[in-house]
């Protein structure tokens, strides 16, 4: 009689990865394939009656290291979060903070008045106010009652 054993795919795949890493380390003498994790800030896009407002979380980034471009209907935010280097001898056991350059582009749903765009940076949050062009603003028409 055969006994049913549940298959634990995640556990088995992790064991397989460890074994493959061990084989590569034995062949090349060091770990060759490191997982690549790209850092990308969170963005919000909100619309009000007169503006589009983009808010981006950019903690730890110097505003001088941020650039904002508008090309047609695509807004692009670029920047770099630089890693702080200290001369102290430290042995890290865990590093979770992300560093490096990023690019975020979003397509804007309406035409923007490019001459009136404003950007501000406070407490690690970038806020971009993009005024809608006059031709796309909703015009309210009053009904004359007779």
Strand order of the largest sheet: 1-2-7-6
Counting structural domains, the number is 2
The number of strands is: 7
Radius of gyration: 25 Å
Distance from N terminus to C terminus (CA atoms, Å) equals: 91 Å
How many individual helices?
A: 1
Query: How much of the polypeptide forms β-strand, as a percent range?
Result: 25-35%
Shape: elongated
Mean pLDDT: 81
Assigned CATH architecture of the largest domain = Sandwich
Summarize the structure.
The chain has 146 residues and is α+β, with helices and mostly antiparallel strands. The chain folds into two domains: 8-37; 43-83 and 96-131, Immunoglobulin-like (Sandwich).
Please explain how this structure is put together.
The chain is α+β, with helices and mostly antiparallel strands. The chain folds into 2 domains: 8-37; 43-83 and 96-131, Immunoglobulin-like (Sandwich). The protein has one helix at 9-28; strands spanning 43-47, 51-57, 66-71, 74-81, 100-107, 118-122, 125-131. It has a 4-stranded antiparallel β-sheet with strand order 1-2-7-6, with no helix packed on it. It is elongated and about 90 Å long.
């Amino acid at each position: 009689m055969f006994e049913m054993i549940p298959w634990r795919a995640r556990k088995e795949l992790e064991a397989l990865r460890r074994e493959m890493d061990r084989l590569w380390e034995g062949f090349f003498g060091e770990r060759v394939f490191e997982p690549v994790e790209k850092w990308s800030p969170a963005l919000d896009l909100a619309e009000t009656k007169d503006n589009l407002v983009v808010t981006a979380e950019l903690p730890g980034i110097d505003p001088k290291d941020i650039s904002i471009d508008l090309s047609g209907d695509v807004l692009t935010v670029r920047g770099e979060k630089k890693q702080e280097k200290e001369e102290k001898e430290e042995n890290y056991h865990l590093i979770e903070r992300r560093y490096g350059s990023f690019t975020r582009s979003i397509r804007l749903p309406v035409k923007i008045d490019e001459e009136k765009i404003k950007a501000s940076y406070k407490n690690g949050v970038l806020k971009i106010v993009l005024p809608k062009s006059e031709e796309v603003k909703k015009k309210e028409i009053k009904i004359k009652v007779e």
